[in-house]
Design a protein that fits this description.
Number of strands: 16
Helix content: 25-40%
Strand order of the largest sheet: 3-4-5-6-9-11-10
Number of domains: 3
Distance between the termini: 66 Å
Radius of gyration: 23 Å
Order of helices and strands: EEHEHEEEEEHEHEEHEHEEHHHHEEHHHH
């Protein structure tokens, strides 16, 4: 059957059509499933995404696309030597079904850095994209999908339960099925994002929620079609994924009631590294005052320079700050300390705190201060050399160069003392006195409450090794001992 749903919170332009396929016998659609999120409040968006996506359930996703599109997404990555390209194509998915909700004409592209050529690709999924979406069939080359005006009207501003976009996460560092990296069991990122949210219990830094992306477990059945005319699409296989929230405008609207955020997604191994750590190549501007950054936009480049090196820019003020109070006028110190407490506890060494990679730098205009948010928490709770449990609380030895921000903070005795207190308080929220407690319980929940149940739905080659949880238990216990020893010694 076909439903047309209308809600007063949506504009007339955001009316939409949803198909409920009788063959997908696992649920009925929510009336809020699609539509524009632009006119919804941050509170309403938060409630919607919490109740429909990040609600503790194991979701079911079905994706239908042409086999040629699937093959080309893989081939493009191999042709770029498995490195992120500036020209990553958005591929056309004919249908995207989430818990019974069918959305047609969805865009998908490969995401990640080191995970771009593993057998189980991870994807960004966009629900409102109408331009530069590519398709193909057979041996033809990429061709852009040409949507008519009626179809564009359906797609534009469309969301899935308040999400403009989501990620299907299956990174190189957090997966363990056969023929994959074997480093984990799709649990590290789920547990680490939960742990990051726990820092808000020590010091609140948002209006609602926590300054970290939310994750949820799902199975994904890919249905690959021989060509545009194929409706049965019999090449089918299922895999386990994590759904992950993205850092778009709605993310900041939900946490901070900020509809025009200024956001940087730090990467390339140089974020906050020495004097060049705030250059655009290292900070990767994403949004400036709510507008997607365009490196060819002269006005935006002028704004960017003002944010970083202008008289009231981040680098200018950090360089000039001599005291804790002066740094506190530039930085949201609660945000920075919460971030650092999480990073050092869960072993988030692939970070701005460690190897100058990943995480989010955010300018909070209402307060005029800069915040740090954790991102890409897949490479955590492991014994890789940079993240071994004996590392210091400051993570100074992980970095191979001066740190523009953290070295200055830890060199200040007042701030160093405040951070040790913050770290001790944070440990008390996720551990008990013996190094067990809530964090261990969360690992058990991921293993038994989610992964074990998902394994029952998958064929042998896609099931994950539950024994890998022991590595996480060992790491958390050893890290707890190391941090407690360091804090007591100081």
């Amino acid at each position: 059957m076909r439903l047309v749903l209308h809600s007063a919170v949506f504009s007339i332009a955001a009316l939409f059509t949803i198909t409920v396929c009788e063959s997908y016998a696992f649920g009925q659609p929510a009336t809020e499933a699609a539509g524009s999120g632009h006119e919804m409040s941050g509170q309403d968006l938060w409630n919607l995404t919490e109740s429909k996506v990040f609600n503790g359930q194991i979701h079911k996703i079905f994706i239908k696309m042409n086999q040629a599109v699937w093959n080309q997404l893989h081939d493009d990555e191999k042709n770029h030597n498995c490195e992120k390209s500036d020209d990553v194509k958005w591929g056309h998915a004919r249908e995207f079904v989430f818990d019974g909700i069918v959305m047609e004409n969805v865009a998908m592209r490969v995401r990640g850095n080191t995970s771009r050529c593993i057998p189980r690709l991870q994807f960004s999924v966009a629900f409102d994209k109408t331009r530069n979406v590519q398709t193909k069939q057979g041996s033809e080359g990429w061709r852009e999908v040409q949507y008519n005006d009626a179809t564009k009207a359906v797609i534009q501003d469309r969301t899935l339960n308040g999400l403009q976009e989501l990620s299907l996460r299956r990174s190189f560092n957090d997966s363990s099925s056969q023929n994959d990296s074997g480093n984990g069991m799709l649990a590290r990122e789920f547990v680490a994002t939960w742990a990051a949210a726990g820092a808000e219990k020590v010091a609140k830094t948002t209006v609602r929620g926590a300054p970290v992306y939310r994750t949820a477990y799902t199975t994904v059945e890919f249905q690959l079609c021989a060509n545009d005319a194929d409706r049965t699409c019999e090449n089918r296989f299922s895999r386990a994924y994590l759904i992950a929230e993205t850092f778009d405008n709605n993310f900041f609207k939900m946490r901070y009631d900020d509809s025009k955020p200024t956001v940087f997604s730090m990467a390339h191994g140089c974020a906050l590294k020495d004097d060049k750590g705030l250059e655009p190549r290292c900070t990767e501007p994403e949004y400036l005052k709510g507008k997607k950054y365009d490196k060819d936009d002269a006005e935006q480049n002028s704004q960017l320079a003002a944010f970083i090196t202008g008289p009231k820019g981040l680098k200018t003020q950090i360089d000039a700050a001599k005291t804790a109070a002066e740094l506190g006028k530039v930085l949201d110190l609660d945000s920075i300390m919460n971030y650092a407490a999480v990073a050092t506890t869960v072993g988030h060494w692939d970070s701005a705190y460690g190897n100058f990679n990943n995480d989010i730098l955010y300018f909070h205009a209402p307060s005029g201060k800069w915040k740090l948010l954790t991102w890409d928490l897949d490479n955590t709770f492991d014994f890789d050399s940079p993240g071994k449990p004996s590392r210091s609380y400051s993570y100074r030895e992980v970095a191979n160069a001066p740190r523009l921000l953290f070295d200055k903070l830890f060199a200040n005795p007042e701030l160093d003392g405040q951070f040790k207190k913050r770290l001790a308080d944070y440990l008390g929220t996720i551990y008990d006195a013996n190094g067990n407690g809530p964090l261990n319980d969360k690992i058990i929940e991921a293993r038994d409450g989610y992964i074990k149940k998902i394994n029952d739905q998958l064929v042998n080659g896609e099931r994950q090794d539950l024994q890998r949880a022991q590595e996480m238990f060992d790491y958390t216990k050893d890290r707890f001992k190391a941090l407690k020893t360091q804090l007591q010694a100081n």
